[in-house]
């Protein structure tokens, strides 16, 4: 009975935690978590404290694809300081020159300033 209570308590806490941070998880992994996914996740062993490093096994439904992993702040800092910005995921290269195309002509009329507006008073 105590084991069932602990299991239900852990499931409830996992549901709250995962569903509250579901948006960030979905963006990073590309997998949309549902309540059924969380409830179906096996609780194989007793939960260890966070200080204990233990590999986490993901079920087949949550296997990650080969998308670039999220870099830590220290890794980003090292890449920027070393000038190796090509290895930063989703980093656009912006050329250091002006656009050489002919600028387009404005089709909007010039806005008048408040003191230039003529007020017509109906008599």
TrEMBL record:
Sorted UniProt keywords: Signal
Keyword Signal: yes
Region (Disordered): 84-123
Ranges where the Peroxisomal membrane protein PEX14-like KPWE domain occurs: 68-116
First and last residue of the signal peptide: 1-24
Polar residues: compositionally biased ranges: 94-108
Domain of life: Eukaryota
A Pfam family per the record: KPWE_dom
Name of the protein: Peroxisomal membrane protein PEX14-like KPWE domain-containing protein
Source organism of this protein record: Pisolithus microcarpus 441
């Amino acid at each position: 009975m105590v084991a069932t209570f602990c299991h239900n308590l852990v499931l409830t806490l996992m549901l709250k935690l995962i569903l509250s941070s579901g948006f960030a998880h979905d963006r990073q992994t590309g997998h949309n978590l549902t309540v059924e996914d969380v409830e179906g996740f096996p609780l194989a062993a007793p939960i260890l404290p966070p200080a204990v490093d233990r590999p986490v096994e993901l079920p087949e439904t949550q296997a990650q694809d080969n998308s670039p992993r999220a870099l830590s702040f220290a890794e980003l800092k090292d890449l920027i300081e070393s000038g190796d910005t090509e290895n930063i995921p989703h980093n656009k290269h912006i050329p250091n020159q002006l656009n050489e195309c002919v600028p387009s002509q404005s089709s909007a009329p010039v806005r008048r300033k408040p003191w230039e507006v003529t007020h017509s008073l109906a008599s």
